[in-house]
Amino acid sequence: MKRMEPQKFQMIKDSMDRIAAIFHGDTVRGLVAHAEAIELELKISKEDEADTVRKFGQLAKDNDRLIDNVAQLASELNETREAKKVSLPREVAEVVESLVIDGRDIDYIVWHMTAYGDRHCYSDRVNIIREYAFENGWTLISALVNGYTVEEPPSTEDKIVTSLTQALEDMRVESPVPVERLAKVLTHAIREVLAEDRQEE
């Protein structure tokens, strides 16, 4: 319903007042009062509508802001988890994955890594976990809680460096450079000699 202009409304009201003086004054005055009440209700309804639209707009903005906040927090949580991931040997990671697939949870794995008993009391999978946890318990717990990556198997060169380092330490070789550095230099020299021999063949 279109709102009546105030001047026209006042003219009608004045006309009604004059008619009311002549005819049934109470009835006409009642109609005028009713028309004024309707006009007031329309005005209040328009104000309520504007207020409701304003509140809805604010709620939509708040909702968008909250969605952005949730996305930001999820991103930060993922970054934190990624930063806390530890590396597990492939064999241990495969056992953990197989236990999870079988429906085992962290409590099951932690209980078995700390339970008392001989090796023959447990399955091969559980023994792998127990043996790894004996020296690396905190790493395993961190992996179960924060996630893990799978260690790449050491390269032949890494194995030679490790073996040479251990041999040099066992022989108590004195060196002006750290023993591990000496082992790396020796490994590099061996690799070059082997490469030259292969080219000559």
Task: List the SSEs and their pairings.
Layout: H1 6-22, H2 25-84, E1 86-88, H3 90-101, H4 106-114, H5 124-146, E2 148-150, H6 156-170, H7 179-200
Parallel strand pairs: 1-2
Helix pairs in contact: 1-2, 3-5, 4-5, 6-7
Give a structural overview.
It is a single chain. The chain has 201 residues and is mainly α. It folds into three domains: 6-80; 86-150, no CATH class; 156-200. It is 79% helix and 3% strand. It contains seven helices and two strands, in the order ααβαααβαα. The chain has helices at residues 6-22, 25-84, 90-101, 106-114, 124-146, 156-170, 179-200, and strands spanning 86-88, 148-150. Strands 1-2 form a two-stranded parallel ribbon. Helix 3 (90-101) packs across helix 5. The protein is elongated and about 125 Å long.
Sum up the structure in keywords.
single chain; 201 residues; mainly alpha; 3 domains; 7 helices; 2 strands; elongated
Going by helix content, strand content and strand pairing, the class is: mainly alpha
DSSP strand (E) fraction?
under 5%
Major sheet: arrangement of strands: 1-2
User: Which of globular, elongated, flat, extended, rod-shaped describes the shape?
Assistant: elongated
User: Could you give the count of β-strands?
Assistant: 2
Major sheet details? 2 strands, parallel
- First and last CA, distance: 101 Å
How many domains is the backbone divided into?
3
How do the SSEs run, as a string of H and E? HHEHHHEHH
Average pLDDT figure: 80
Helical proportion? over 70%
Rg, please?
42 Å
Count of runs of 4 or more consecutive helical residues: 7
**Low-confidence parts lasting 5 or more residues at pLDDT below 50?**
none
